[in-house]
Design brief:
Helix 3 packs across helix 4, helix 15 crosses helix 18 and helix 16 packs parallel to helix 18. The protein is of the alpha/beta class and about 600 residues long. The chain has three domains: about 240 residues, 4-Layer Sandwich (Glutamine Phosphoribosylpyrophosphate, subunit 1, domain 1), CATH 3.60.20.10; about 180 residues, Glucose-6-phosphate isomerase like protein, domain 1 (Rossmann fold, 3-Layer(aba) Sandwich); about 140 residues, 3-Layer(aba) Sandwich (Rossmann fold). Helix content is about 35%, strand content about 25%. The relative contact order is 0.09. It binds 5-amino-5-deoxy-1-O-phosphono-D-mannitol.
Length: about 600
């Protein structure tokens, strides 16, 4: 899990590569480095720590050269350190490599090389690749890389340069993402589009098992077996500004405030004026929906929490049995999946290794695979039979917000589409969903007004060690996501559970002043949730409720209320999550944390 960046062209490479790495830091940030070719020699500069430290080193000791590669690391093999930072070279410094992912057989490769006398400067799997490419090199970098990766097993992307061929980069994709950017007399290469968006919108996505040969004048893609590949270019329509913070102190806050627009985008052209739903990349064969007997949702983290909302919706509205499973568990289980199952794999990045594996298992067992993902051209989207893109735009903050919300929107659209095709959707519910979804961007805008109150409340939470989140049904699904937001950026321990579960154990932890956040929007279980509030209040808890603006009862029970605009109960997750995101953000800010890059985490978990 790392970020890779490369440049070849007429300009100085180092500033371009470092700038690209800055936009990829969300992929990992425990060390960083670059290698630049000045036409004669390769110079490597690298260091443990964030990119700012590398930039400082380069200010002190600038490196000149018109081609370069760089890397921002999230450690997998070898602790974060200067020597384990990328790029890595062979002992002679002839070949330089950056790499994202894992070489699974690196130990045996390393032992073989060591037995032949090789000495290693790091503990990484990447260095093994540099050795292998150098050993295979006989004047053609492309062929040397091809032969070297033929010996490696794993899921990775790599880029190599060599001293003898200035102005040439060779890259390979084996699962981990890689895109090429086409400029005017210059070429770029990166793990993700935002890294190169300031230079070009003209993108080519490299596919699994492909090798790409890049010079300033062009690129050539082949399969690893040498078969030439023709690949269409993609025009990226994201605004370059979208990939920047746009004046907000953190990407997370910016992304929270982008949610109304993101929702509009996700609905656009899909929920038509006349109420029809058109999902452009979902093409279920005739009879499939009618014969559907199970929906199997698989995902991790926040995407899994979106799946919890999906389960409630699909079971309640469609009466189709729906299971939600963590992808990392399901990939090693023996799930009951067949041709009449629809597998919904949810992933912002579309690159999460566990989700890809679980999705692959579903396909193997004959299930139709529908990807709900934010990244066009991601591995998940390409491996799925059907795709529903969330259109949230680039999400940079590690803590997912707008991607989550647009995943929910995607699930509502799916519920409408499937429910209508099966003829099971109650017409009144259908009309409620259509009207409600149309109005949801405006409601999200109103919900964002909770920020002022969230800032004040954050002061109460910032000094606490534990927070509990409760709710019932859809409110529980949202509480779980609110709890994850809290813990991942504020580092305050938090737990979520169905409100009725408290009394079965967790209530023992509630004492004077314990903060309990209660999501209370579902009319059918309203009184039951009030009972849970009373249970914790009786033990001295400080209760913060998230409730509709016109709920006059809740203030009698809770200490504080974060208000959300009234929407139909079935749509409440689309607004009730917003105050929880804002609360988590401001608690983390009050505690002075690095909000966009929380400790120990990375945006895309592309390793198991
Ligand atoms: O890219 P994905 O949606 O597959 O990522 C899954 C999780 O790693 C991700 O949602 C993670 O839990 C977020 N950092 C939570 O904010």
């Amino acid at each position: 899990m790392c970020g890779i960046m490369g440049y070849v062209g007429p300009r100085e490479a180092a500033p371009i590569v470092v700038d690209g790495l800055r936009r990829l830091e969300y992929r990992g940030y425990d060390s960083a480095g670059i290698a630049v070719h000045d036409g004669t020699a390769l110079t490597v500069t690298k260091t443990e720590g964030k990119l700012a430290r590398l930039a400082g080193l380069l200010d002190e000791h600038p490196v000149a050269g018109r081609s370069g590669i760089g890397h921002t690391r999230w450690a997998t093999h070898g602790a974060p350190s200067d020597r384990n930072a990328h790029p890595h070279t062979d002992p002679g410094g002839e070949v330089v490599v950056v790499h994202n992912g894992i070489i699974e057989n690196f130990l045996s490769l390393r032992e073989t090389l060591a037995a032949a006398g090789a000495e290693f400067a790091s503990e990484t799997d990447t260095e093994v690749l540099a050795h292998l490419i150098a050993l295979e090199y006989d004047g053609d970098l492309l062929e040397a890389v091809r032969r070297a990766v033929g010996m490696a097993e794993g899921a990775y992307a790599l880029v190599a340069m060599c001293r003898q061929e200035p102005g040439r980069m060779v890259a390979v994709r084996m699962i981990s993402p890689l895109v090429v950017g086409i400029g005017d007399g210059e070429m770029f290469l990166a793990s993700d589009v935002p890294a190169i968006l300031h230079h070009t919108r003209d993108i080519v996505v490299i596919d699994n098992g492909e090798i790409v040969d890049i010079t300033a004048d062009g690129w050539k893609i082949e399969k690893l077996d040498g078969t030439p590949v023709e690949r269409d270019r993609l025009e990226i329509t994201w605004d370059a500004e979208q990939a920047e913070r746009g004046g907000y102190p953190h990407f997370m806050l910016k992304e929270i405030f982008e949610q109304a627009n993101a929702t509009t985008e996700t609905l656009s052209g899909r929920l038509l004026e006349d109420g029809r739903v058109v999902l452009e990349d979902v093409h279920f064969p005739p009879g499939f929906v009618a014969g559907l007997d199970k929906i199997w949702i698989t995902a991790c983290g926040t995407a899994y929490h979106a799946g919890l909302v999906g389960k409630e919706l699909f079971e309640r509205l469609l009466r189709i049995p729906t299971e939600v499973g963590y992808a990392h568990e399901l990939r090693y289980s023996d799930p009951i999946i067949q041709g009449t199952t629809l597998t919904l794999a949810i992933s912002q990045s579309g690159e999460t290794a566990d989700t890809l594996a679980a999705a692959g298992l579903a396909k193997e067992r004959g299930s139709r695979l529908l990807a709900l993902t934010n990244v066009v051209g991601s591995t998940l989207s390409r491996e799925s039979t059907d795709v529903l893109y969330t259109r949230a735009g680039p999400e940079i903050a590690v803590a997912s917000t707008k991607a989550y919300l647009t995943m929910l929107v995607g699930e509502y659209l799916l519920a409408l589409a499937i429910g209508r095709e099966r003829g099971v959707l109650d017409p009144a519910i259908d009309a409620t969903l259509v009207a409600g979804l149309r109005g949801i961007p405006a409601k999200i805008g109103e919900a964002l007004a909770a920020e002022e109150q969230a800032v004040v409340l954050a002061g109460r939470f910032a000094g606490r060690d534990d927070v509990y989140f409760i709710g019932r049904g859809l409110d529980h699904a949202v509480a779980v996501e609110g709890s994850l937001k809290m813990k991942e950026i504020s580092y305050v321990h938090s737990e979520a559970m169905p409100a009725g579960e408290l009394k079965h154990g967790t209530l023992a932890l509630v004492t004077e002043g314990t903060p309990v956040v209660v999501v209370i929007t579902q009319g059918d279980v309203y009184d039951k949730t009030v009972s849970a509030i009373q249970e914790v209040k009786a033990r001295g808890a400080f209760v913060l409720a998230v409730a509709y603006e016109d709920d006059e009862q809740v203030a009698k029970h809770a200490d504080e209320v974060l208000r959300i605009p009234r929407v139909p109960d079935v749509l409440s997750p689309l607004v009730s999550i917003i105050p929880l995101q804002l609360l988590a953000y401001h608690v983390a800010a009050a505690r002075g944390h690095d909000i966009d890059q929380p400790r120990n985490l990375a945006k895309s978990v592309t390793v198991e």
